[in-house]
Specification:
Blueprint (H helix, E strand, L loop, with lengths): L5 E4 L3 H13 L3 E10 L2 E9 L10 H11 L1 H5 L2 H4 L1 H10 L7 E5 L5 H7 L4 E6 L2 H13 L5 E5 L12 E7 L8 H11 E14 L3 H14 L7 E2 H10 L2 E14 H8 L3 H17 L7 E3 L2 E15 L18
Bound molecules: S-adenosylmethionine (SAM).
The site of S-adenosylmethionine has 20 residues, from helix 2 and helix 6.
Length: 329
């Protein structure tokens, strides 16, 4: 006797309702269907139909564009992005020379790229959000800077030749990348051998449950946040991409919770949950971001790190077996 077909639901009930909500908000329609896969097995697919006028499917990168278009002008002027000391710390960490060709990945409104343009020969800033690039171009025009240019491009697939920059940097964007390993590989590819690579970003706890607590409230506040990485993971990604870590500088971004929520224009229903999670963190020390109250105002501290490395030439990678770990005892 032939057994009854088994149904496999490929989209979890919560994933399903989320997708349908998103699809209503973008005005697209949805469908579902079933197909035969193997004997006695059927798969249940949820698909979404997009009007041909839509530029992007509702994938992660379109969430990034949506969030950074929505936040564009307020965000460009935010204290943390414009802080000249923070910009200078990153620039000085790379030891720039006046003749350097610099690439800034995910440049946003271009503050870091414009800072480099004061010290270096040629600077390129790339980003996937056009609204951010427009602000960056406007700023460089206002300041009469002519050695920087801004172009559209994806950090996971850089539109540049191998070995074409002396310095490649990325600030406050790694937590938005779906595949940070690919981005580090791309940064390494476009950097010349012996050139400098620096990643400056929020870092999460080395302890996974604490890291995921922070990432959960960060994602609720801004759905384009994927995951702040622990420092050890950024260092490991450098090593996997022929980059030798030369320096690590740590710091914090102290955030006033209400200001930080209003910058991202987080809808009230999600903002309430973010407040609840951070208040619980203040009481029970859940994430390592050390939330605290001052004059009835709630704050927390994002830990950050600038990881700097040198892109090694292949001949420096060596082929020696590892023999320098003598057995103890
Ligand atoms: C928080 S902003 C940081 C802006 C800038 N790096 C700074 O520190 O002033 C993050 C930026 O990353 C950009 N971004 C995110 N994913 C990207 C990708 N895959 N390729 C290029 N840009 C990306 C967003 O569009 C946004 O402008």
């Amino acid at each position: 006797m032939t057994p009854a077909p088994r149904w496999i639901q490929r989209v979890s009930p919560s994933g399903l309702s989320k997708r349908i909500t998103e699809c209503h908000s973008t005005g697209s329609s949805h469908y579902n269907t079933s197909v035969e896969t193997a004997p006695n097995t059927r798969a249940f697919y949820i698909g979404i139909l997009y009007p041909s006028s839509m530029e992007d499917p509702p994938d992660h990168k379109s969430a990034v564009r949506r969030e950074f278009t929505k936040q564009a002008s307020d965000y460009a002027e935010s204290d943390i992005l414009t802080d000249p000391e923070k910009i200078d710390s990153l620039i000085q960490a790379t030891g720039p020379s006046s003749g350097a060709r610099v690439l800034e990945i995910a440049t946003g409104p271009g503050h870091v790229a414009l800072g480099f343009a004061e010290e270096c020969d040629q600077v390129t800033g790339i980003d996937i959000t056009e609204a951010q690039l427009e602000i960056a171009r406007e700023k460089s025009k206002e300041r009469g800077v002519d050695n920087v240019h801004f172009e559209k491009g994806d950090a996971e697939d850089l539109p540049h030749q191998d070995d074409s920059f002396d310095i490649v940097v990325c600030r406050l964007a790694f937590h938005h990348f779906e595949d940070p390993a690919v981005v580090v590989e791309e940064m390494s590819r476009v950097c010349r051998p012996d050139g400098t690579i620096a990643v400056d970003d929020i870092i999460a706890s080395e302890l996974p449950p604490r890291a995921s607590y922070q990432n959960e409230f960060e994602r609720l506040r801004d759905p384009s946040h994927v995951r702040a990485l622990p420092l050890s993971e950024i260092i490991a990604l450098f090593s996997q991409s022929k980059i030798e870590v030369t320096d690590v500088f740590s710091s914090t971004n102290v955030q006033e919770v209400e200001q930080w929520l209003s910058l991202a224009k987080t809808p009230e229903s999600r903002a309430d949950e973010v407040r609840r999670l951070i208040e619980e963190d203040a009481r029970d020390d859940r994430s390592g971001t050390r939330p605290f109250w001052q004059d009835d105002t709630l704050y927390f501290a994002q830990n950050t790190a600038i990881v700097v490395g040198r892109r090694l030439r292949d001949s420096r990678l060596g082929d020696r077996q590892v023999t320098d770990h003598p057995r103890s005892g």
